[in-house]
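Here is one such tokenized protein:
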Amino acid sequence: MAVGDAMGLAIKGLKAATVRQMFGAMDGFKDVRPFLGKGIKRFKMPGLYGAQTQSALAAGDCLLKNKKGGAQEISELLVQLSARGPEHYFGAYRHPEAGFGKAVSSLPEHPSGGTAEHRESNAVFSVMGIPVGLLHRNRMDTALRLGVETGLLMSRNLSEVTGVALAGYLASQLLLIEPGEQDVPLTGNDAKQVVSDAEEFCRKVEARFKETAPDLWEETPEPERGALEKTLRGLRERWDLKLEDVLGWIVQNASDRLKLKIAYPTQGYVLTLFPLALVLVLREGRGFNSALTLGLNMGKEANKTGVLIGAWAGALYGFPRIPDVWRSGLVNGKEIRLRGEGLFSGRLPKVAKDLCEMELDLTAKEFEMGKKYFPKLSSKFTRPTPRPALSWEDEETDEPEIPEKSNVAGWRKFQKDKTRAKRDRRRNLKPENADH
């Protein structure tokens, strides 16, 4: 998950053609500095993951400390991570998605673990369900309950909440599957069975959602109910089509259901990214690196695509199948692995660093590396001190006093008076052919 996030952040927002032009293929952690201002707007430290993985780590740490719940602890830790950080950052978070900051900022308004003010199905919080699925991989009822509760903590959108729970469920199920020889994905029937099981899980999630948050269920329009389940069913029915046709259907299906104009399957929505990641992991990829590279090469919301493909392909193929250069190039990889092992053992290792301090240090490190690339604040205009009146000049004059620009009302009045005076002078000018 962290590898996919870190690699995808470098090309976040770029079209596939631009990715090819700049980097050829996304087969490693890319240095964006040569391309800043030429398509890439912000500096990202090579090999460093962003807010998606950070939120998943926060969920994992809290769940390991309180296996029966954790919503309140997760809320407090997420807010703590947003409390301090360098300039140009949202606390310790690095490059958060649209809506992330608003949702985290609204958490203090719900001290009892209520729902944040997030209403879009833009897959911002999906990966927070992955620690839930890994920790409770043998307790599906508990995983279902905590997945829904974690989703409801962050979002009021049914598809977003369903995506949180489903992301963890799929990671736990893919751990049980042994891929074929030479990293060949699953057979058609096996892959379709995974998708079919995901459909059934979506139905259970929505039933739990209705039971846990009846008011939000009533607020959800009828066409949005079952949207992710129906999307997965449509994907399964078209599983044997060519990739180009499947991608076209993903775009059209999401456009119709969301009533939005969607042009790319890698646009940041649950209804686009989930079916796309499933196709690339279960059908198109030939191993971890192949599946991830295929998804990242498509550009756009590459970090969101990367975390899903990275988590699911990692679960399917295992840690040893991740290329050595990617494992060694991931910043903070040792701490990430410690937490992954903790989710399997059911306890947070004592040697694990404090998450807030760890993430703040990493954000500060990225800031120091890239601060010269951040936009510089424009210096405030200061009017020079007026020269003193000379001895032969009249002390009193009809010229109006020019106010400071910091005096907004005075400056506005001065400009209006100046314009009015110019207009009056034009009106009093004699015609060119008039006698003088």
